[in-house]
Write the structure tokens for this entry.
Amino acid sequence: MIRSTIGNHPRAWGTFVVGLVGLMFTLMPAHAKAGAILTLNQINIEQFPQIRIYLTASDERGTPFKGLGVSNFSVQEDGKTVRVHEVYPLERGEEPLSVVLAIDRSGSMRGQPIRDARQAAVNFIKEMRGIDRVGVVSFDDYVTVISRPSTDKGPLLKAIAKINVGKDTALNDAIMKSLALLSPFTGRRAVVVLTDGKENRSKASRSETIKEARSVGVPLITVALGAEVDTSALEAIAGATGGHAFFAQESSELPNLYRAIARQLINQYRLTLNSRKSLDGGWHQLQVQLKTAQGKAKVERLYLATLKQTMGAGTIKAYRKKIDFYYVIALILGALAVALCAAIIFVAVARSKKTKGTRRSG
């Protein structure tokens, strides 16, 4: 779980800062004081008992903190202090980032909003490094894959310019598709989803979306545009998966906002520590505290102590659909085979009767 507070009035602070710079979170997935914001994006236990924690640390404007080290962090596992062995700034470029941008193209995005959204995506991609992979989907009633995650960003920039508006908003399905596109990749991953409306067309539910993201360990970063958005839903999605919830009052804020999101993701920190637990298949809590000259912050999140391969809800659903498809095909082919056999038997019987009749008449 990730708790969220800023001062005494988180929404008031968010609205205030957004009005000034358009870069403030409406949901802060951390306990923050005096300008420090800490977000625990991912927990990696593939090399257990070694645990790798991926964090975003920034000020209230979203500007990443630079130069943090072991002395800035303390970690507790199930309430007991665990030594941090290494704090590594990932901006150095040794570990790639895989991101899918999901862009709302519903009818209400017509005109300047969709133009600003396209420019925001371009700004995001230009902030990425050569080793980073970016993919894009757009959505209205349906989800369209513009590009799968790739380090070749030239064609992607051209493809984004062709995104046009449609009708309704299949938000949950867009997130599920984005997660599926990230499934071939390991390491740092994220989905950044923009919408200016409320979910009204998806087959997947919000709870299924959150469950899928958590099962595959991908944080969902949500961007709400305008006053018609279901902000509580986007906050729930971001908060439950280790992401951020951003809010933009006007589409003109999007290009700078996406640039800030990109810089935060690039400037993540990786904390390395050794767990004192065993692979017992149970849930354990990690609490990370940050101390900087700008202030303090604290964040908590659970991890599941197992190395068994798990299949996400979306993967299971896709598998079931595949099985159902083959089952239907088998039924159709079986029915055709039975019909063909019946036809052959019918023709054979008819010919036999005709032959017997001819002999008698002769």
Observations:
- The CA atoms of residues 110 and 165 lie 6 Å apart.
- The domain at 1-310 is CATH 3.40.50.410 (Rossmann fold).
- The first strand starts at residue 5 and ends at 6.
- The helical segments are 10-21, 112-127, 154-160, 171-182, 206-216, 231-241, 254-266, 313-361.
